[in-house]
């Protein structure tokens, strides 16, 4: 019997009849108040088996106390006509009885077995690898909430539209500058008006690119640094 013994502990006995005749069996114990045996007697057909359940009642287990409980299984050939099982055992002669004695052994599970059972019943823990890499960053520095994300997307769209508008204007000014340079080149007289227009067209391109870059860099610096 394996503990703990705070509840009923059941052990099964398998009795087999290897003979070609019916056999009557009976199970006895030296501690009938401690055990419940089902069935405690019966008949086994030739070549058949029967399972006997032995139920140990709860008790205070003392590992230093040696068990003295024993069981005895008695068997005898069944008579042709059985009407009273008690009469069979009373009328049976000693040389017609066969008995097998069994000594009870109480075992408590080891502490390691208990720990293994407890660990097996618990779900597997989820490993947190972030602790190995370092402290967790603050939530607001990792991700943005929905409102901030929506605002950022709208601002990006607005900047993209503004950049496209400035790009078109830059293209227009570049084309206008090319046209003015052609006019200035074809103007053999080298008039001051043509030279002034050419200088204005060439100077407007760098300043416009500086404005676009400043707007784009300033926006993202303000969002992610401040």
TrEMBL record:
<keyword id="KW-0256">Endoplasmic reticulum</keyword>
<keyword id="KW-0812">Transmembrane</keyword>
<keyword id="KW-1015">Disulfide bond</keyword>
<protein>
    <recommendedName>
        <fullName>Vesicle-associated membrane protein-associated protein A</fullName>
    </recommendedName>
</protein>
<dbReference type="GO" id="GO:0031175">
    <property type="term" value="P:neuron projection development"/>
</dbReference>
<keyword id="KW-0796">Tight junction</keyword>
<keyword id="KW-0007">Acetylation</keyword>
<keyword id="KW-0597">Phosphoprotein</keyword>
<dbReference type="InterPro" id="IPR016763">
    <property type="entry name" value="VAP"/>
</dbReference>
<feature type="region of interest" description="Disordered">
    <location>
        <begin position="114"/>
        <end position="144"/>
    </location>
</feature>
<feature type="coiled-coil region">
    <location>
        <begin position="149"/>
        <end position="176"/>
    </location>
</feature>
<feature type="domain" description="MSP">
    <location>
        <begin position="1"/>
        <end position="107"/>
    </location>
</feature>
<keyword id="KW-0472">Membrane</keyword>
<dbReference type="GO" id="GO:0033149">
    <property type="term" value="F:FFAT motif binding"/>
</dbReference>
<keyword id="KW-1003">Cell membrane</keyword>
<dbReference type="InterPro" id="IPR008962">
    <property type="entry name" value="PapD-like_sf"/>
</dbReference>
<dbReference type="GO" id="GO:0005923">
    <property type="term" value="C:bicellular tight junction"/>
</dbReference>
<dbReference type="GO" id="GO:0005886">
    <property type="term" value="C:plasma membrane"/>
</dbReference>
<dbReference type="InterPro" id="IPR000535">
    <property type="entry name" value="MSP_dom"/>
</dbReference>
<feature type="transmembrane region" description="Helical">
    <location>
        <begin position="205"/>
        <end position="225"/>
    </location>
</feature>
<dbReference type="InterPro" id="IPR013783">
    <property type="entry name" value="Ig-like_fold"/>
</dbReference>
<comment type="similarity">
    <text>Belongs to the VAMP-associated protein (VAP) (TC 9.B.17) family.</text>
</comment>
<dbReference type="Pfam" id="PF00635">
    <property type="entry name" value="Motile_Sperm"/>
</dbReference>
<keyword id="KW-1133">Transmembrane helix</keyword>
<dbReference type="GO" id="GO:0005789">
    <property type="term" value="C:endoplasmic reticulum membrane"/>
</dbReference>
<keyword id="KW-0175">Coiled coil</keyword>
<keyword id="KW-0965">Cell junction</keyword>
<comment type="function">
    <text>Endoplasmic reticulum (ER)-anchored protein that mediates the formation of contact sites between the ER and endosomes via interaction with FFAT motif-containing proteins such as STARD3 or WDR44. STARD3-VAPA interaction enables cholesterol transfer from the ER to endosomes. Via interaction with WDR44 participates in neosynthesized protein export. In addition, recruited to the plasma membrane through OSBPL3 binding. The OSBPL3-VAPA complex stimulates RRAS signaling which in turn attenuates integrin beta-1 (ITGB1) activation at the cell surface. With OSBPL3, may regulate ER morphology.</text>
</comment>
